[in-house]
Amino acid sequence: MAGYPAWDQDSARTIIAGLAHLEGATLPMLHALQDAFGYVDPQAVPLIAEALNLSRAEVHGAISFYHDFRTAPQPARIVRLCRAEACQALGCEAVVDDLAREHGIVVDAAQAGDAAVETVYCLGNCALGPSALVDGELLGRVDAARIAALCRHGRAHS
């Protein structure tokens, strides 16, 4: 994601060493690494394991269990598309299908380029669904063309 420095092993070691004294330090380390780099690079797994005398599997298990941890840099733009019941009733699944068929954008797939579309469940904008959240802006009555434009142009207003 824009604004984060590139992964740096020496900086990661410094972050890990600074938190190793904490009881239950795995999660604070993972959060600190993600805060510093925007994601937890897989190269951090053996560093954390060594610092805390854990197996690599235990560290990897913590990363994979908590869905907020990311193991790769994030795209510059993430469009969060609501797929909860109210938005389903207002056509969000047709939007998902149209995105794939007409625009080549697969929801919840690995990023392609500098944007990604992710599923969320309820943005609290049920009466104006399908809804999306882009750059902190809540959008109602979105369709596939608008979401595709958001992914291409990097603006919440297309």
TrEMBL record:
Q: Which cofactor does it need?
A: [2Fe-2S] cluster
Q: Name one Pfam family in it.
A: 2Fe-2S_thioredx
Keywords from the named record: 2Fe-2S, Iron, Iron-sulfur, Metal-binding
Kindly give the PANTHER family that the UniProt entry links to this protein.
BIFURCATING [FEFE] HYDROGENASE GAMMA SUBUNIT, NADH-QUINONE OXIDOREDUCTASE, E SUBUNIT
The family note in this entry says:
Belongs to the complex I 24 kDa subunit family.
Q: In its UniProt entry, what is this protein called?
A: NAD(P)H-dependent oxidoreductase subunit E
